[in-house]
Automatic annotation (TrEMBL):
Domain (PEP-utilising enzyme mobile) ranges: 153-225
Source organism of this protein record: Salinibacillus kushneri
Keyword Metal-binding: yes
Name recorded for this polypeptide: Phosphoenolpyruvate-protein phosphotransferase
Catalytic reaction annotation: L-histidyl-[protein] + phosphoenolpyruvate = N(pros)-phospho-L-histidyl-[protein] + pyruvate
Sequence similarity: Belongs to the PEP-utilizing enzyme family.
Stored InterPro entries: PEP-util_enz_mobile_dom, PEP-utilizing_PTS_enzyme, PEP_util_AS, PEP_util_C, PEP_util_CS, Phosphohistidine_dom_sf, PTS_EI, PTS_EI-like
Length: 572
């Protein structure tokens, strides 16, 4: 057996066979003087195999995730049945006498370039479909296995170089017991999704794809960030015991499900959850969440071949608001696309620094057609619960004002159309850009609330990529620079009678919780599975006692000094 160490990204222990999820190498050689009849036969057979796989995936997705998610596979099937694409490939095989791989590649690229350059969104989306489908057909031509995560139907641990958010969205929790990746950090979106799926995960384990073969027995220790490959019987027993202990601990926490979130000195805070889809609401309720502090709506736009319609979005928002319960807050973040969250069908230009690029509110203010559709859906859904709207990646007051003005315009438009809209929607911002944290005082006059997005705030403040394990030593949530920014935001909010929450992963971190409590954070939004452990921890903490040491905490020079000091004052 061998053991790898990575970053514990989602709690729990998983023991199962490895399933490697990787796109095969699709490079090929162009061959001349081929027999066209044979090449056409090979092409037809690769297309048929691809079609039958896609039919299966589509049926499976329809059953597990509904029609909306299955739609992308219908679009792929249409491409594979389109004579306007297939005939030119066959013509090329005949005229140039080249192998099917070369003819497929050339013809598909020609169509992709043509569609991508059209001034028509529908056609640009078709370019993305052709690109996806061509990969599958090419893999079959080259006889290299193409992974179909949606079709996994036995208990496995997924092993991948990295998982995109849309890969993660396809994983079926019934069979996928856990996952491990070479790259990534605790705040990469695949790790965040693992926590909302409640499956154990270890990310950033560097060489899992090198060291693990399909079918190896793997133990994922999501509590301590370990990956064991082909463990001995004794090791397996040890981990089965650890798994059982973790289950017992969870049963203890579960007793707090309907209890209030109070500290030892009877101070209330709000413990709410981060979600990515309406399906996650169930986990929020099971884990005693007092609402939703961050609904990442990007996932509505992913795993599809086109933008979600206003009605589709309305249905999702209504489902969340009603599911959570009408009195409980639901903070919905408007589209935060960009960074590692791409939408193929929008065909946005590749950027050198996507995390510093054209994303989130920057994108929405330019593509206000897309933004308005989302805002209308949100406003229409607002009558079904306690909705709060939050804009991501706000860097300037002017961005906030523009976004809010568009929201108010759409509200007026709906009212003119005779559609009811709630009059009590709070409108706030994520604080994830250092400049915004620095002038929080000025922002606090404009917004109804702040939610601190430490996942990004830390990476921008420390100039350390949140997904790069090489610089993860610099990604320091307890660094005094971060704590001073957080404190600045909380004080600014309170001075204007507003509330300050946090929806970055730091809010659910047991080391950070006492510090944030002492700084006066009002709302802690975290993965649903962190809520009960946090509630249990709060019961033992005195807010006033920690707050009395606030200045000392903020004046420490290093993260280590902060952690040591807070440990001293909370354990004494
Ligand atoms: C919550 C945040 O947003 P995301 O993780 O989706 O970037 C954050 O940046 O802290
Ligand atoms: Mg962010």
């Amino acid at each position: 057996m061998s053991q790898l160490t990575g970053i514990a990204a989602s709690n729990g222990i998983a023991i199962a066979k490895a399933y490697r999820l990787e796109t095969p190498d699709l490079s090929f050689e162009t061959k001349k003087d081929q027999n066209p009849e044979e090449e056409i036969k090979r092409l037809e057979s690769a297309i048929e195999t691809s079609k039958s796989e896609l039919e299966k995936i589509k049926a499976h997705t329809q059953e597990k995730m509904g029609d909306e998610h299955a739609e992308i596979f219908s679009a792929h099937l249409l491409v594979l049945s389109d004579p306007e694409l297939i005939q030119p490939i066959e013509d090329k095989i005949k005229s140039d006498q080249i192998n099917a791989e070369a003819a497929l590649d050339e013809t598909a690229n020609m169509f992709i370039t043509m569609f991508e350059n059209m001034d028509n969104e529908y056609m640009r989306e078709r370019a993305a479909d052709i690109r996806d489908v061509t990969k599958r057909v090419m893999a079959h031509l080259l006889e290299r296995p193409f992974p179909n995560p949606a079709l996994i139907n036995e208990e496995v641990v997924v092993v991948a170089q990295d998982l995109t958010p849309s890969d993660t969205a396809q994983l079926n929790k019934q069979f996928v017991q856990g996952f491990t990746t070479d790259v990534g950090g605790r705040t990469s979106h695949s790790a965040i999704m693992a926590r909302s799926l409640e499956i154990p995960a270890v990310v950033g384990a560097k060489s899992v794809t090198q060291d693990i073969k399909d079918g190896d027995i793997i133990i994922i220790d999501g509590l301590d960030g370990k990956v064991l490959i082909n463990p001995s019987d004794d090791e397996r027993k040890t981990y089965e015991q650890k798994q059982a202990q973790f289950e017992e601990q969870k049963a203890e926490w579960a007793k707090l499900k309907d209890e209030p979130s109070v500290t030892a000195d009877q101070k209330h805070v709000e413990l709410v959850a981060n979600i990515g889809t309406p399906d996650d609401v169930d986990g929020v309720l099971r884990n005693g969440g007092e609402g939703v502090g961050l609904y990442r709506t990007e996932f509505l736009y992913m795993g599809k071949s086109s933008l979600p319609t206003e009605d589709e979005q309305y249905d999702a928002y209504k489902e969340v608001l009603e599911g959570v319960g009408s009195d409980k807050p639901v903070v919905v973040r408007t589209l935060d696309i960009g960074g590692d969250k791409e939408l193929d069908y929008l065909d946005l230009p590749k950027e050198l620094n996507p995390f510093l690029g054209f994303r989130a509110i920057r994108f929405c203010l330019e593509r206000d057609d897309i933004f308005r559709t989302q805002l209308r859906a949100l406003l229409r859904a607002s009558v079904h619960g306690n909705l709060k709207i939050m804009f991501p990646m706000v860097a300037t007051i002017s961005e906030f004002k523009q976004a809010k003005a568009i929201l108010l315009e759409e509200k007026e438009n709906l009212k003119q159309e005779g559609i009811e809209v709630s009059e009590n929607i709070e409108v706030g911002i994520m604080v994830e850009i250092p400049s915004t944290a620095v002038i929080a005082k000025q922002f606090a006059k404009e917004v109804d609330f702040f939610s601190i997005g430490t996942n990004d705030l830390i990476q921008y403040t420390m100039a350390a990529d949140r997904m790069n394990e090489k610089v993860s030593y610099l990604y320091q949530p307890y660094h005094p620079a971060i704590l001073n920014l957080v404190n600045n935001v909380i004080e600014a909010a309170h001075a204007e009678g507003k509330w300050a929450g946090m929806c970055g992963e730091m809010a659910g971190d047991p080391v950070a919780i006492p510090i944030l409590l002492g700084l006066g954070l009002d709302e802690f939004s975290m993965s649903a599975t962190s809520i009960l452990p946090a509630r249990s921890q709060l019961l033992k903490l005195s807010k006033d006692e920690i707050a009395s040491h606030k200045d000392e905490i903020l004046s420490k020079s290093t993260a280590e000094e902060v952690v040591e000091f807070v440990k001293e004052i909370t354990e004494s």
